[in-house]
Automatic annotation (TrEMBL):
PROSITE patterns linked to this entry: ABC_TRANSPORTER_1, ABC_TRANSPORTER_2
Superkingdom field: Bacteria
A Pfam family that the UniProt record links to this protein: ABC_tran
Residue runs in coiled coils: none
UniProt record similarity statement: Belongs to the ABC transporter superfamily. Ycf16 family.
UniProt xrefs under CDD domains: ABC_FeS_Assembly
Name assigned to this protein: Fe-S cluster assembly ATPase SufC
Keyword Nucleotide-binding set for record: yes
Length: 251
């Protein structure tokens, strides 16, 4: 599904290398987690995969289903089935949440050569999905994320994900700033979307999210590289011992 080889990335306007050779392969239906200290390059990895401006790829490759992601603009990546839930969801004043979602769904359908979703069908689907995420009708009508609480924004990100039905979902610290109840809602939303054909990369600072979203593989990232890969136990180990031992081992 997702194959990253020796990915090296620097800031576009600064001589600062952030990713120093990342290797990561995620198979169809797998859930991988990346943990790591602040500043290790986790968000940068997700930004580069989604095509955000400001970064320059200086080496390596990233493909989704064999197609070169790094060569595509963000819309093409989304049409191919890549979705990124941001650590800080953006507010879009003046654009209703429902309108935004319908436009996004139709843009994706168009890019795939499919017919537009009818208004009635769209309403039916969005109401269903919003209900499971405890997003009420009023939140659907408000401008995207404007005035939403932290938890509401994150739930709204998962709603976007549910509506777009991507095959590769990247969640960047979707749990940060969430209380236990909101985290459970978000996790339940993600778990409901798990399927054979859909893969997840869950970036998190805390092991507790991985109690809810059980990963198949856990990677530890530090200083622009993945320094260790293991099973779910690796997350527990890090939670107990911190990163210091791993960093020392790696150095
Ligand atoms: P993480 O998500 O693991 O906390 P980031 O990818 O956000 O790490 O950041 C990795 C490093 O790159 C940090 O040292 C951060 O300060 C730096 N960095 C990332 N993006 C930028 C940017 N746009 N401008 C300046 N520094 C940046
Ligand atoms: Mg950070
Ligand atoms: Mg980050």
């Amino acid at each position: 599904m997702l194959e990253i080889k020796n990915l090296q990335v620097k800031l576009e306007d600064e001589d600062k290398q952030i990713l120093k050779g990342v290797d990561l392969t995620i198979g169809a239906g797998e859930v991988h987690a990346i943990m790591g200290p602040n500043g290790s390059g986790k968000s940068t990895l997700s930004y580069v995969l989604s095509g955000k401006d400001g970064y320059e790829v200086t080496g390596g490759t990233a493909t989704l289903d064999g197609e070169d992601l790094l060569d595509m603009d963000p819309e093409e990546r989304a049409a191919l089935g890549l979705f990124l839930a941001f650590q800080y969801p953006v507010e879009i004043p003046g654009v209703g949440n429902m309108t935004f979602l319908r436009t996004a769904v139709n843009a994706q359908r168009k890019a795939r050569g499919e017919e537009e979703i009818s208004a009635a069908e769209f309403l039916k689907v969005i109401r269903e999905k919003a209900k499971t995420l405890k997003i009420d009708a009023e939140m659907l009508k408000r401008p995207v994320n404007v005035g939403f609480s932290g938890g509401e924004k994150k739930r709204n990100e998962i709603l976007q994900m549910a509506m777009l039905e991507p095959k590769m979902c990247i969640l960047d610290e979707t749990d940060s700033g969430l209380d236990v109840d909101a985290m459970k809602l978000v996790s339940d939303g993600v778990n409901a979307l798990r399927s054979e054909g859909r893969s997840f990369l869950v970036i998190t600072h805390y092991q507790r999210l991985l109690d809810h979203i059980k990963p198949d593989v856990v990677h530890i990232m530090a200083n622009g590289r993945i320094i260790k890969t293991g099973g779910p136990d690796l997350a527990l180990e890090v939670e107990q011992n911190g990163y210091a031992d791993l960093l020392e081992e790696h150095a």
